[in-house]
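To whoever is covering the structure queue this week,

Two jobs came back overnight. Logging them here so there's a record in the thread.

Job A:
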Amino acid sequence: MHALATIAAIFTLPGFTAVAAEPSGGRLLEGTFPGTARPGYVYLPPRFDPALRYPVVYLLHGMPGSPSEYPGGTSLGTFADASIAGGTLRPFIGVMPAAGTSPRYNGEWAGEWETAVVDRVLPWVDESLPTIAAPTGRVIAGLSAGGYGAFDIALRHPRLFGAVESWSGYFTPLHDGPFKHAPDSTLAANDPTLLARQEAARLRVAGVRFFVSTGPAHSHWIARGTSLKFAGELRRLGLRTTFRTYPDRAGEWREQLEAGLKWALPA
């Protein structure tokens, strides 16, 4: 036990510094990922051992917003540490990049920020950390606009992720950020409903799993029933889909994250 703790303590990630020690020995590191413009976070689990291989959960924040939504707003580290230590959740690496050049960015996880995740962040993570560098070892998830981004990115790159999650997200591109003056062809190419239909056969063969959940309405841009309707569409396409709803506003983001992680990575 002492040797493992020592290994975890001396492990360094280029450009990142430890900013928090989690309750059961996990660590939160802060730094700026390649291709992004502001700091994000990496979560390392209790008893982290660089000689092992870990699944990675990519967590996309809402808009406007910041990666701090996860360690702060959802208490990611506290939940993950306790669940991993208690044997109910697989040890995993959490990756929380940032979109936009400031917390005021109110666009989408698309355009240059999609490129950053796919072409810069993901390869760097696999090169710098002991990951399971395959779809079976990758989960992408997000809350609100991050949920849209998770599905848009995963469906546009169907060979990258084995599990995709949206927590109170939406599934139609909004006319903001890179889509503000985009032609209909660009909007269609970033529409998760259309993408799911186009890629359904490939996704079924690959066994990609989908988790869609929702809490009370939190934005006038997201129509009531959006998540339920989209989950129904995925099921009609024969895709492996779990849908859950959380009626209480208090703690809804934390509850959705906890349920989503348990669904994706049960011990």
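Job B:
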Amino acid sequence: MSRDAPTTRLCRYDETHIFVREHDLCADVIGKMSFTDFMFLQIMGKAPGAAERAILDCVLVTLCEHGLTPSAISARLTHLGAPESLQGAVAAGLLGIGSTFVGTMEGCAFILQEIVGRETEDGMREAARTIIERHLAQKQFLPGFGHPHHRPDDPRPAALFAAARAAAVKGKYIDTLLILAEEVDRAYGRHITINATGAIAALLLEIEIPPQLMRGFAVVSRAAGLIGHLYEEQRTPAGRAIWRAGDEAVPYSAAPG
């Protein structure tokens, strides 16, 4: 084999065995490993410890369901048009996971990494203020902060932080996020809540998940939530009502001239 030939370390198999990350699927995994554990092994290349397992379970549960959000609406409307394609409806909902909805932990994680690199709390606060000023100057929202419905505080971060502390994580990124939150309130002159994805960014960094992978965990979790929406859609359809509501909310207007 050429030294430059591509290889994979994920899976190998023969006539009687399947190995994933060198774990025998039938002998070592099925019936012995939870999906959370196996997913962590598959992605990160090692079995999770207790803290990693606890954090990942919290994250997956938190991201699974958020009501009639754009991703759920997309899935339901796609099912309305193509009821034979469950996977197409799920895929339609997942395509909306990005920098505005669900996937914003990625942007927050990069910010936390930038701040935590400073050696002192004063240095961290200075970095936080610089980042906030940059976002204000560019009229960009700060990922991980604000929520249209939960005020004064999103209830989920406190629960996530408590679970993380109970799991005995180091807390370096959680503490950094709290410092950033204090500087956000000072810069804006009012309280702006840390939201769920901001808290999730800190928790995933605590277990060494790279920011560029974080959105993938949101995709896995939200897929399960969308299946719940589609099962409900099959039994008590809402797609036509959503379509009709959209049609009524955005009436036709002839272009001037």
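Note for Job B: The chain has a mean pLDDT of 94.

Please reply-all if you pick these up so we don't duplicate work.
Q.
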